Amino acid sequence: MHHATANEFETAETAETAETSPLTTSLSELLGAFSYALDLTEGQPPGHSLRSCWIASRMAQTLGLSAADRRTVYYATLLKDLGCSSNAARVAELYLADDRVFKYDFKLVGQGLGPTLGFVFKRTGVKSPFTLRARAIARIVGDGNRIATDLIQTRCTRGANIARQLRFSESVALAIAALDEHWDGHGKPDGATGHAIPLAARLALLAQIVDVFQNAEGPDAARAEVATRRGTWFDPELVDVFMHLSNAPQFWLDLNDPDLELRIHALEPEEHREQVDESYLDAIADAFGAVIDAKSPYTGGHSNRVGSYATALGQTLGFSGSALRNLRRAAVLHDVGKLGVSSRILEKPDKLDDEEWVEMRGHASHTIAILSRIGPLRDMAGIAGAHHERLDGKGYPLGLEASRIAPEARIISVADFYDALTADRPYRGAMPVEKALAIMEGEVGKAIDGTCFEALRELVS
Description:
Layout: H1 6-10, H2 27-41, H3 48-62, H4 67-78, H5 88-95, H6 99-106, H7 113-123, H8 130-142, H9 144-165, H10 170-177, H11 199-217, H12 219-228, H13 236-246, H14 249-255, H15 260-267, H16 278-293, H17 302-316, H18 321-332, H19 343-346, H20 354-372, H21 381-384, H22 407-421, H23 433-441, H24 450-460
Helix pairs in contact: 3-4, 3-11, 3-15, 4-10, 4-11, 5-6, 9-10, 10-11, 11-12, 12-13, 17-18, 17-22, 17-24, 23-24
């Protein structure tokens, strides 16, 4: 059996220090990088939230909005999908479909009841037995308006609350809550109409539709779709502003510039730019932990609990100062890649088939890719993504040998393993502590580190 030595853990320890100087990362850079995780859960191509933010911000400039209002538009659009993970499991359950693919395709459906019903008939339960499919379609058709309202209400409420957790103003939270309201009052969840809908929400919805259609079918299709929805979904004045801006070919070249992320940061009003200190970065990590956990009804609080277990284990094993703080962040965000996994797989009560296992295992690679984009978390990306590596080399995503698995990753693996066993899952109920520890003890030296396990046993027994 391989037990980590004291020296192995000492290599990761940093001396207890006063909090170091504030981070130099700006809020726009940090949340711009995190927005790729929101694109995953909506099934959108990478950069969708950034492109939507750029479109809405360009329009805000043209409208001559104040710096404070432009900041509201900027962040409400960039973070418009904060609550989307909260209805993913319900979408998968109702429509018997991959929630990400379903959401992506649904955004391309035209206006009106006819196209919507046609989409439901065509896309619900396509891989399910006929009786299940027929039952699902009947339920949706029979109670479609209430179902749609509930799904959007869940998303809007959750998104607004997470925006508040991220320390944004009420104007940003309310704009995110109103993303699906339509100019003519036929939107959801409240049926707000006209100027009663926050301007930032009106801009965010228009920008979202523009990017969805331009990405799928090209600029002309996007312009045509916006024109079609003038006065129904969209504020006519905003449509006119968009049509004027987008008439220039350079608009589309800039929108699809590979360096768009740099342009986005420049669009944040300079007088309202904010640097992220250590405390704020902790709050941001916790907020995105809530986004991750909302993906499944079985993972409520999982990210925070893994963060707490990892912190306690880290302290026991000699971590302190910034090393301990970074360990907790990596632990809280270890499952961010699950936003890119279908809820049909995450919620499946039966054994996964080979294809489903490939997708499930891919979440660790997604975690690495997302966190690698985020400056202050880049060094912890590989550690967070290694929580399913095993000491016997049979883990994933890289099949690392024991000597290449960092102490922090070993700690997170033990914390994650323990919480997974002692919480409810789709395929079984929560286990008692002693049974969970007995199972884990059998994996010492194979899947998990013995020193970390013994520290855990001391903490929870």
